[in-house]
Amino acid sequence: MSRSINLIVIHCAATPNGKALYKGGTRTAAATIDVWHSQRGFRRDTVAREAFNPQLYALGYHHVIDCDGRQETGRAHSEIGAHVAGHNANSVGVCMVGTDKFTQRQWEALHSQVRSLQARYPAARIVGHRDLSPDKNGDGTIQPSEWTKTCPGFNVADWLAGGLQPLKSHLIEAAA
């Protein structure tokens, strides 16, 4: 199945900053979020799941970036995500572990991932989850008071304007 992708949506996992979800055991960051999404009632289409990452039953994102910069796949790009209501059919979702501060390795991985997605989907707009909140007052600008979520915890437009370099106020070193 081919989908028309016009959005690349950046998310955060709303987890402690700098605390990796993958600890070297058997459960990766994507597998951990998969459990959380399953508990929220998310489900992947059986055929799509069997064709790509069959061990992930519910994960809504297409990509996950853990604190060490490890990049994992979730859903295939051909599969509709479950990461931003009203925009899943035409988007790819990228989730960073943490809430509003990320490690240098995460920023580098996000840069690399977004560049790769831009090459694949050159017409896609890059936004944060919060940027897709409804414009409640109809002025054409989504203000912080209108955000339904603060995700990804930083202003994606500022990150893009800065050349996809880490935003200093949102940069941390990984916790032990």
TrEMBL record:
Task: Name one matching Pfam family.
Answer: Amidase_2
Q: Which InterPro entries match?
A: Amidase/PGRP_sf, Amidase_domain, EF_Hand_1_Ca_BS, PGRP_domain_met/bac
Q: Which SUPFAM superfamilies does this one have?
A: N-acetylmuramoyl-L-alanine amidase-like (SSF55846)
List each copy of the Peptidoglycan recognition protein family domain by range. Answer: 12-133
Q: Which domain of life is it from?
A: Bacteria
CDD domains for the chain: PGRP
Q: What is this protein called?
A: N-acetylmuramoyl-L-alanine amidase
